[in-house]
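Researcher: Good morning. I'm working through a list of sequences from a screen, and I'd like to move beyond sequence-only analysis. For each chain I'm collecting a predicted structure so we can compare shapes side by side. This is the next one on the list. No need for commentary yet; just the structure.
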Amino acid sequence: MLFNSFEFLLFLPVVFCLYWFVFNRSLRWQNVLILFASYFFYGWWSYQFLGLLVLSTVLDYTYGFWVASPNRKKAKLFLWLSIINNLGILGVFKYYNFFALQFQQGFELLGIHTNPYLLSVALPIGISFYTFHGMSYVFDIYRGHQKPVSNFIDYAVFVSFFPLLVAGPIERANHLLPQVQRPRTFRYLQGVEGCRLILWGMFKKVVIADNLAGIVDELFNNYMHYNAFSLIVGAIAFSFQIYCDFSGYSDIALGTAKLFGFELLSNFRFPYFSRDMAEFWRRWHISLSSWFRDYLYIPLGGSKQGKGKAVRNTFIIFLVSGFWHGASWNFIAWGFIHACCFLPLLLMDRNRKHLTDVVAQYGIFPSAKEIWQMAATFALATFAWIFFRAEGMPHALGYIKQIAVDAAQHPAQFLHLPSGKMAFVYILPLLVMDWYLRRSERSLRLPFGNMSPAFVRVSHAAVYWALLLALVWNLSYSENTFIYFQF
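Model: Good morning. C-alpha cells for this chain:
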C-alpha cells in the first residue's frame, strides 16, 4: 500500500479510529491491532512475501533468547546464526542473480561457459529494512544493551510497525520497544504535529518529487540528445527528486507514528545545507548511516586503531552501503565516490567538525564561506547521484562523458536556458521552506513568529491550505511508488 494512494487515505483513519476509540482500554489489544494493520498494509502490496516477513520475525525473536545466554560461546553461535539467516534472506532475494552473473562472466574470461540458474522472483518490498531491524535487536542483546522481549506481539510490532515497515527509518529496539510496551494516550499537540508532517511529506513526494521525476527520466533516458547544461540540470533535479521522495516518505512515517503515540528516529536533517561530506552523512538517511557506524564501523575498530584501519573501515562501510542499496556496480561506485570524498576529512581530523551546529547558526543568511562549502558539498553529492540514478555503469559513464565532451565543445550553451529548467520551479520554493525549518526538521513552524497571534494563525492556515490544494491537484493524476521501495 502506498502512502500516496486512495487506499491509504481510507486505511489510516479506519485504523486510527479503531486504535483510539475501540481498543483504547487495552494496550495488548492496541498492539494486536497495530500488528494486524501492519501485516494488512504489507500484504496489500505483496501478500506473497508476508510469510517471509513473519518467518524473519519469528527467527530473530527466538534467537534473542539464545543470544542472551550467559554462555558466551552459545550466545556467539546464535548471534552468527541470526546474521547468517538475515543476510541469507537478503542474499537469496537481492544479490543471488548479481553474484551468479558475475561468476558467469568470470568463468567466461577463463574460457569456461556456464549457464547459471537465475531467480525470476521480485524483490520483497522492505526486506533490507526489516532484516536490519532484526539484526540490530539481536546485536543489542548480545552486547547487553537490550533484554529479550517475552511478548512476541510486542517484538513483532517493533519489526513490522507499518509506518516504517517498507522504507524505514531503521529503528533501534531500545528506542521503539519501550514505546510499544508502555500505555499510550492521545495527545492533541502530538496529533497536530503528525498531521503537519504527513501533509509536508506528501507535498514533497507528490508535488515536488513526482513532478521532478518526469524531467529526470527524460534527461537520463535520452542523455545523448541533450547538451551538457541540460544534463547538469537533470543531475540537480534528481538530487532533489530523491531527497523529496525519501525524506517525504520519512516525514509521512514520522507523522503517522505520532498519530498513534509513537516517536520515531529522525532520518533527514536538511542534508543539502551540509558544509562537508561528513556532515552530509550525519544528515542523510541517518538511521542507515548510524546503523552501519554502530554495527559495522565500530566493531571493525572504528578510527581508534590508527589512520590505516580507519581508512580501511571507512571504505568498507561506504562500499557496503552502496551494495545495500542495490546489486549493481553503479551503486558500489556511488559508495566509493562518497568514501573518497570523506577520506580527506578523516585524514585531516575534520570529519567531526559540524556535529551539532547548523549553517547560519545565529543569523538569517549564511556567510560567503558557508555558501561555498554548501555548494561544493552539493556538487560532490550530485555527481555521485548520477551513478545512483543510472541504469548501470555504462549509463552513468556515458552520461558523464556527454556532459564533459559537450561542455568542452559548446561552452556558449551556458549562456542560454537549458532543457529541464522547469525543475527549479519546484526546487527553489523547497529550498526557501527548508532554510526556515533547518533548525528543527519536525517543528514545521513557519517564519511568522514576530507577528500578532491572529496573523500567525491565518498565515499558517493559508500555507497549509495551499499545500493541501497543490497536493490534491497533483494526486488526481499521480500515484508513483517511492524510490526507496526498490531497496
